[in-house]
Amino acid sequence: MIFYFSGTGNTRWAAQQLAAVTGERLLFIPDELKGQSTPDELEQSTSDELKGQSTYTLEADERIGFCFPVHGWQPPAIVRRFIRRLTIKNPQGHYCYALVTCGDSIGRTMEMLNADLATRGLHAQSLFSLVMPESYVCLPFMFTDSPEREQSKLSEADRQLSQIAEQVRNRVGGLTETKRGLTPWLFTHVIGAYFNGHMVHDRKFTVDSDVCIHCGRCQQVCPTGDVRLNADGVPTWQHDGTCTSCLACYHYCPKHAIHRGQITRKRGQYYFGHP
Hints:
The protein is about 35% helix and about 15% strand. The protein is α/β, with parallel strands linked by helices and about 280 residues long. Helix 1 (about 10-20) packs parallel to helix 6.
């Protein structure tokens, strides 16, 4: 089985390619979390109080894969919440791996992931990172890639993923094929800690109602259901702690009517497979 999370589609593509090669089932983490406690309730609970665990039984020789984008040089909060609730009844002897997508480097994301997995009796034996086109544009130094850079990244990712898929298919262990960057501890535990502690929310999202065409695309692509259309067909955000700041609503908007603060008014848009 492959547990995955994706906002703008980079990781969805990678997970689908892995599933095609291994023949294993894809499980979308937000869907797996539906019907359970809200994120705010989870944050207020102790580990002993967490009920309704996500419980799975592996088929014979089934692999365990975790695929997600790096958010602020850390695993996304939604992935970490899912792992806290994850129970696999028969993990012994099953190959476990992780693949993350990123715009550049991943810092100590994999160390954090394996620390979380250890609490569930799991360990990712092989670790991979895949550089994909940039989609986070809410900081002064972060932009979408140029068309040439985007295509270069996609071509290299396609080549690299083919190799990774074969390694996963053959259950090759002991691999660490990741780009951690020059100062991984600083990026993950200082910058990343601030980002994930203070910048993952939906409070800054706005919509230019005179530009919005009420197509509902933002609502359709939001992975957690945080975006909903009001009675006038204008998107609203629920402010209920479910936003992952993946920016899917921003990037998929066909009229660039959605913004997260003023900075994104001067930024480009990207999603995997866009025209």
